C-alpha cells in the first residue's frame, strides 16, 4: 500500500477551488473569488495563516471560534499523537471510555452546580441533546428562544434560530417553539406563563451581532424559568471556555443554570466535539432505566481523539493563562477600538467582552457619504461591512467576518493567545480602513459599487 496523504495533497494543491466548484459548493467558491478571499494557505500556527505568496495573515475568525488556543497547538498535537501511537481500544461501545470519564471530571470541576456530562460531536448536536433532555425532564414540549439567536443548523437547533435567512426553505420546523425579543424579561415571563415550557435556550452573549445582555438578565431569566417549572439552557458553544475572559460568559455564582452547552474551543480545532453539562436530576430523567441507557447518544460521541483533545485544551488554557490574556487583551483592544468612534462618524458602536468584539457601523451624516451609503444599501442590505472586511484582508492581512445577515457589524473572534503586536496590528488596520471608508469617492467605494453587482450574503458561525 503506497497511500501517502501529503504526496496526494501536494500533487493536487492547486485544484482546491476547482474541486469545490465541481463537487461541493460552487456558491462558496463564487463568494471567495468575488471578495478576493481565494488564497492558497500552506501552513498555520497560533493566530496566523501563511499562504503560498509568503504572506502572514492574522486570523480573527479562528475557524468560527474553534482555534481559541491557537492553530496547531503542540500540546494538543502531542496528546493526539500519543493516543494514536498507543493503539487504544477506542469506541468499544459495550464498555465505557476512561478518557471521557477524565474529561467529564475536569470539565465539571470548572462548572459549579453541574454534575453530569453528555458528549457529542458538535455544537448543534449539544443543542439537540439539550432539547431532548429538557423535554424528558419536564415532560413538556415548548421551547423558547430569542430573536437573532444562533444555536446551530440541524432541524431542532434551526427551530431555535432567530434569523429568518437560515430558516427559510427548510420548514416545517419543530412546532411548540416561541421566539421572544432578546434581553426582554417581561416577554420571557409572558411566554412561560402557560406552564407548558420545557426550556429557554439562550446565548449569554449573542454571536450574531455580539449582543450583550443587561446585567441581571440571565439571573432573572433563571428565576423566571424555575418559577414556571422550565429549565434554563445556556448555549456557551461560542462564549464558553475562556472566550469572554472567564471560563464561562455566564456568571454561575448568580445564574442558576440547568444545562450548559460547549463545543468549538474544546476541540482544539482538531477533533469535533460537543458537550452538555447539567444537573443530575435532568440526566436521570432521560437515562432512567437500564433499557434506556443508550436512549440518546451518537456512535462517535466520546471518541478517544476528541476526549484527548478536550483534556489537552483545558490544560493549555490553564498553563498558558489564556483566559487571563483574553480578559486583559480584550479590554485593551476594546478601549483602543472605541477610541476610533470619536473620529469616524460611521463607526457607531464598539462592544464586546474579552476576545468577542463587535464593531458596528451606521449611516453617515455628511451628504456625499450619505448618498453613497444609500445606493449600497439599496443593492444589498449590510453590504457596507464588506467594504471594511475586504481591505482588512487584502491590504492588511487580517481575516474577519460580518457578524450576521443584513447587519452592520464586524465580529472579532481571535485566538485567546493574541499578542501586543497583534493588538497593534488590528488597531492600525481598522484605523486606516475606516478612514478610507470616510473618504468619497475613492477605491473602497469603487469596490463596493462593483460588489453591488453580486449578491454577497456570506456569513456563518
Ligand atoms: C452559540 C452557538 N451555538 C451552537 C452553534 C453550532 O455549533 P456547530 O457549528 O458546532 O454545530 C454555534 C456555531 O457557531 C454557536 O455559535
**Small molecules (ligands, ions, cofactors) in the structure:** pyridoxal-5'-phosphate
What does the oligomeric state look like here?
single chain
Sheet with the most strands: spatial strand order: 4-10-9-8-7-5-6
Q: What is the number of E strands?
A: 15
State the fourth-level CATH superfamily of the largest domain.
Type I PLP-dependent aspartate aminotransferase-like (Major domain)
Which value, in Å, is the CA radius of gyration?
A: 23 Å
- Fill in the CATH topology of the largest domain: Aspartate Aminotransferase, domain 2
Q: Write down the CATH class of the largest domain.
A: Alpha Beta
Report helical residue fraction: 40-55%
Q: In the CATH classification, which architecture of the largest domain applies?
A: 3-Layer(aba) Sandwich
Contiguous helical run count = 18
Strand content: 5-15%
End-to-end separation in angstroms reads 39 Å
Question: How many domains is the backbone divided into?
Answer: 2
Could you please describe the fold and organization of this structure?
With 461 residues, the protein is an alpha/beta fold. The protein has two domains: 14-69 and 322-451, Aspartate Aminotransferase, domain 1 (Alpha-Beta Complex); 74-319, Type I PLP-dependent aspartate aminotransferase-like (Major domain) (Aspartate Aminotransferase, domain 2). It is 41% helix and 15% strand. It has 18 helices and 15 strands. It has helices at 5-12, 16-23, 26-35, 62-65, 74-85, 98-109, 123-138, 155-158, 164-167, 185-192, 217-227, 280-286, 304-319, 322-339, 367-379, 386-394, 420-437, 443-451; strands at 41-45, 48-51, 56-59, 116-120, 142-146, 177-180, 197-202, 231-235, 259-262, 274-278, 347-353, 356-361, 398-399, 401-402, 409-412. Strands 4-10-9-8-7-5-6 form a seven-stranded mixed β-sheet, sandwiched between helices. Helix 2 (16-23) packs across helix 3 (26-35), helix 6 (98-109) packs parallel to helix 13 and helix 10 (185-192) packs parallel to helix 11. The model is unreliable at 455-461 (pLDDT under 50). The structure holds pyridoxal-5'-phosphate.
Amino acid at each position: 500500500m503506497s497511500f501517502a496523504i501529503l504526496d496526494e495533497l501536494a500533487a493536487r494543491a492547486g485544484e482546491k477551488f476547482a474541486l469545490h466548484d465541481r463537487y461541493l459548493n460552487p456558491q462558496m467558491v463564487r463568494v471567495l473569488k468575488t471578495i478576493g478571499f481565494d488564497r492558497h494557505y500552506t501552513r498555520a500556527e497560533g493566530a496566523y495563516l501563511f499562504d503560498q505568496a509568503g504572506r502572514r495573515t492574522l486570523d480573527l475568525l479562528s475557524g468560527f471560534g474553534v482555534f481559541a488556543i491557537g492553530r496547531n497547538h503542540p500540546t494538543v498535537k502531542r496528546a493526539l499523537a500519543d493516543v494514536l501511537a498507543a493503539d487504544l481500544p477506542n469506541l468499544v461501545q459495550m464498555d465505557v471510555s476512561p478518557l471521557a470519564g477524565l474529561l467529564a471530571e475536569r470539565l465539571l470541576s470548572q462548572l459549579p452546580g453541574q454534575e453530569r456530562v453528555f458528549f457529542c460531536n458538535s455544537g448543534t448536536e449539544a443543542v439537540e441533546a439539550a432539547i431532548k433532555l429538557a423535554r424528558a425532564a419536564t415532560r413538556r414540549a415548548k421551547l423558547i428562544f430569542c430573536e437573532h439567536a444562533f444555536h446551530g443548523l440541524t432541524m431542532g437547533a434551526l427551530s431555535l434560530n432567530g434569523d429568518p435567512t437560515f430558516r427559510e426553505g427548510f420548514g416545517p420546523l419543530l412546532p411548540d417553539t416561541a421566539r421572544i425579543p432578546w434581553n426582554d424579561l417581561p416577554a420571557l415571563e409572558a411566554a412561560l406563563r402557560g406552564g407548558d415550557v420545557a426550556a429557554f435556550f439562550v446565548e449569554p452573549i449573542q454571536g450574531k451581532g455580539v449582543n450583550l445582555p443587561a446585567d441581571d438578565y440571565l439571573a432573572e431569566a433563571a428565576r423566571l424559568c424555575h418559577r414556571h417549572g422550565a429549565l434554563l439552557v445556556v448555549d456557551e458553544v461560542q462564549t464558553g471556555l475562556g472566550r469572554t475572559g472567564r471560563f464561562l460568559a455566564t456568571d454561575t455564582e448568580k445564574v442558576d443554570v440547568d444545562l450548559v452547552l460547549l463545543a468549538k474551543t474544546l476541540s482544539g480545532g482538531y477533533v469535533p466535539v460537543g458537550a452538555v453539562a447539567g444537573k443530575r436530576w435532568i440526566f436521570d430523567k432521560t437515562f432512567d432505566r437500564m433499557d434506556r441507557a443508550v436512549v440518546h447518544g451518537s456512535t462517535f460521541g466520546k471518541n478517544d481523539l476528541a476526549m484527548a483533545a478536550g483534556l489537552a485544551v483545558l490544560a493549555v488554557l490553564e498553563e498558558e493563562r489564556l483566559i487571563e490574556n483574553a480578559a486583559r487583551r480584550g479590554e485593551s483592544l476594546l478601549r483602543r477600538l472605541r477610541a476610533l468612534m470619536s473620529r469616524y462618524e460611521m463607526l457607531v458602536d464598539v462592544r464586546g467582552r474579552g476576545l468577542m468584539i463587535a464593531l458596528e457601523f451606521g449611516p453617515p451624516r455628511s451628504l456625499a457619504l450619505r448618498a453613497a451609503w444609500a445606493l449600497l444599501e439599496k443593492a444589498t442590505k449590510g453590504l457596507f461591512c464588506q467594504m471594511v472586511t475586504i481591505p482588512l484582508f487584502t491590504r492588511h492581512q487580517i481575516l474577519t467576518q460580518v457578524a450576521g445577515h443584513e447587519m452592520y457589524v464586524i465580529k472579532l473572534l481571535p485566538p485567546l493567545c493574541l499578542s501586543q503586536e497583534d493588538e497593534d496590528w488590528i488597531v492600525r488596520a481598522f484605523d486606516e480602513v475606516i478612514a478610507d471608508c470616510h473618504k468619497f469617492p475613492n477605491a473602497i467605494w469603487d469596490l463596493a459599487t462593483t460588489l453591488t453587482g453580486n449578491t454577497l450574503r456570506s456569513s456563518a458561525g
